[in-house]
Write a structure and sequence with these properties.
Blueprint: E1 2-5, H1 8-19, E2 27-31, H2 38-48, E3 63-66, E4 73-77, H3 84-89, H4 92-97, E5 101-105, E6 119-125, E7 133-138
Parallel strand pairs: 2-5, 2-6, 4-5
Antiparallel strand pairs: 1-7, 3-4, 6-7
Helix pairs in contact: 1-2
């Protein structure tokens, strides 16, 4: 499915809508350049799961955990990792087993670690307008 978001708030809303369709153990893998809205999308996921904590990019911490909602959300940023081995070194399997949702920025750095049923979200700048985004979601239908 492809969506057009015209603001950061619309990108968040799309994330919130996706959260309604996620089950325990879901993995959401992002692709998109810097500044495309991956963290904004994750803020929406977090809100959609019922978590009210402040969402920030885990660039330096690798993973941020958000609890208190319908499901916990584990927000990964793999930008600084060398590959899947680094992800396993920080306990990837344990996170998958905890029954939450794993949202993974820069997922292409550890593609082989992602389960086959991973939901894939690609965010791209819309050529017609600098602040608009084209968001493609694969692996789940969003209503």
């Amino acid at each position: 499915m492809e969506f057009l978001t015209r603001s950061e708030a619309e990108t968040e809303e799309l994330g919130r809508r996706l959260a309604e369709h996620l089950a325990p153990g879901a993995v959401v893998a992002y692709r998109g350049d810097l500044g495309m809205g991956k963290t904004a999308f994750t803020r929406g996921l977090t809100r959609g799961l019922g978590c009210r904590e402040r969402v920030t990019s885990p660039t330096f911490t690798i993973v941020n955990e958000y609890e208190g909602g319908r499901l916990p959300l584990f927000h990964f940023d793999l930008y600084r990792l060398e590959g899947a081995e680094d992800l396993f070194d920080i306990g990837w399997d344990d996170y998958l087993d905890r029954g939450g949702v794993c949202a993974v920025e820069w997922s292409e750095r550890a593609e082989e670690a992602l389960p086959p049923e991973t939901v894939r979200v690609t965010l791209r700048r819309c050529p017609e307008h600098e602040s608009w985004r084209t968001v493609t979601v694969e692996g789940v239908e969003i209503t």
